[in-house]
Amino acid sequence: MQKTVKIAAIFSACVFLISGFGKMLNVAAFGNLIVQYGFPYASILSPIIVLLEIVIALFLILSIYQKFISLIAAILIVIFTALFAYANTFHGITDCGCFGNMNKLSELPPYVVYLRNLILFILLLFVWRKSVNTISINTEKIAFLVTVGLISAFIIGFTFELPVSYKKNKIHPLYHMPVKETILPDFLTLSPDSTYTLFIFAYHCTSCWNAIENLKAYNTPEISDRLIAIAMDKDKNNAFRNSFHPDFEILEVDGKRFSAFTDVVPTLIYIKNDSIQYVIVDIVPSVYFFKKNYLPHKDTLP
Known about the structure:
The chain is 50% helix and 10% strand. It contains 12 helices and 5 strands. The protein has helices at residues 2-24, 27-36, 46-61, 66-90, 103-106, 110-130, 139-159, 164-167, 206-216, 239-244, 255-258, 287-293, and strands at residues 196-201, 226-231, 249-252, 267-272, 275-281. Strands 3-2-1-4-5 form a 5-stranded mixed sheet, with no helix packed on it. Helix 10 links the parallel strand 2 (226-231) and strand 3 (249-252). Helix 1 packs antiparallel against helix 3 (46-61), helix 3 (46-61) packs antiparallel against helix 4 and helix 4 packs antiparallel against helix 6 (110-130). It is elongated and about 75 Å long.
């Protein structure tokens, strides 16, 4: 029986470990997904959630407090499933983002996500009922836990960006600047009575890649009259276009010269009444979040 319990624990741990490592590679993208779920201010918890998944996996693999940890993991599965069900029902989210950058594992139909979580929940309950807690922990296990935990925490901190909802009151130097006072007229012809969404990025920027799917949703008159992506480098062999199939126009500029305008990618700029209304750096929020927190508040600082 204990051999079966061990197999169930290791299988469950592998799911949590893959999930944690997948999100760890880009915690900012996971935080943005939480925003799309409809919980913008909970996105600040994204690094804690990722680290918790990794710690749970390690405890299960090493059979440390296995009974207690399996119960905590089962409760988390219920919470995660309920949150996904809410996002799927009320916000049309179909990508659970369960495995972060591992798109093939994350982009599953909702019914597969529910089935997978049900199986994982049953396995964890089985481990909880049949296992016993390990009272003593040897030095080797402690050293392994601390080492992996510290490395994971470092990577999580490196890939985490403060969510847009917490940056909203930071004044950007370009905020409310007339377009004619910037270098934009040297590259673009903009009409004073039109609205524009500019996406400034680089083809080699992984954070920019993660923003593309969100950006595609901005290509609608409901947001602005025109969506323009401004690339600060060259798309060699059309690799970017072949991979992401953008449905918006892309203008390639001299990156060295354009960096005087902004040297942070990705940067999202919203232009209205011939002036820059909003500047959002490092991340492209979901359209849901943008409409709710920016468009209705004309005088709110970004």
